[in-house]
Amino acid sequence: xxxxxxxxxxxxxxxxxxxxxxxxxxxxxxxxxxxxxxxxxxxxxxxxxxxxxxxxxxxxxxxxxxxxxxxxxxxxxxxxxxxxxxxxxxxxxxxxxxxxxxxxxxxxxxxxxxxxxxxxxxxxxxxxxxxxxxxxxxxxxxxxxxxxxxxxxxxxxxxxxxxxxxxxxxxxxxxxxxxxxxxxxxxxxxxxxxxxxxxxxxxxxxxxxxxxxxxxxxxxxxxxxx
Amino acid sequence: xxxxxxxxxxxxxxxxxxxxxxxxxxxxxxxxxxxxxxxxxxxxxxxxxxxxxxxxxxxxxxxxxxxxxxxxxxxxxxxxxxxxxxxxxxxxxxxxxxxxxxxxxxxxxxxxxxxxxxxxxxxxxxxxxxxxxxxxxxxxxxxxxxxxxxxxxxxxxxxxxxxxxxxxxxxxxxxxxxxxxxxxxxxxxxxxxxxxxxxxxxxxxxxxxxxxxxxxxxxxxxxxxxxxxxx
Lengths: 226, 231
Ligand SMILES: [Zn+2]
Known about the structure:
By secondary structure, chain A is mainly alpha-helical. Chain A is 65% helix and 0% strand.
């Protein structure tokens, strides 16, 4: 089982190396290279996953301690307003809590994840303050917050030899529409565009189905290992 | 998606885009380019990771508040287990007399409808009200049109969305991101017609808008005003 789990993680992680190579790597953010089981339990990533998987409030408290002041500082830098910066802490940490189950370590470390959602909420808060038209929001501008797969180039150039038969028993637990997408991309080696055309669905729909499917698969395989 | 982008935002612009320190108007233009351009998309991810590292290294500014109430309130909220379906990235939009695929953010910004104004030389313009620091507009050059030679008070960013245009310095196609400063006099022309999105420094604030990113240009402006005073 571990074998499969590693392979599947490699699908998602292989594209991440592009990003890592050109960056200085701080101690806590090397997580991306490791199988989830061997993460330092005190790392931001482990805590965030505990919050997501087990609604762990103790882990959330630690994350809150580590990040609240940073979020406040970002708010002060951009808005120069103490009350707004406190609002930002509340809004950003609320999203950390709410979206923790969606956090995907293969797409980046916890700090980047929390930074981008802080940046985005701050942008929206400031626009509201200045009464600027609400025709566009941060989510329209920075689409990768919710994990746009394309932003990290997954699946375009990283086909890894997955032992498909062994994965099949997990695959059948997915909704049929997601199974179809995974089969086209990983079994038939189609590009996103080709798969979308074959399945007759919009490209955006294909990408979100693939994202959901990979997340779910990783979860299923992880449960099996426990 | 499109492989032949020749003109990209500068590194500084992309870094500020990732860090979240630009005006909404500039963010929109860069976001739209990033959707066209895989290279800038990868760079943005890199710069976001770097911005996160810089962020962690900022000295912590303590706010005196006790957060325990806030935490209690937060953890009483339900969590979210599903990613909301996102719209397909490009949106077909009917503009003037034909349909154009727009990057997501621009389709959203234009979704309230556009009012087109006729300018001289076969140019049409539809302004968007985005923020106080910039003036944002769609520009449509009809086939064979040519603008009068002009200069800008601040800076101007142009993103080509459909068709092509050229000026003294080059030819620009879909996805190209062009930045012109107040020293450039230019006279764009388009043989096949062209739809662009343009962001200009607002006349009121151009010294702190886009031009702020162009230190040499600021110096130039400063020197010029000094020499005028000397005369
Ligand atoms: Zn580019």
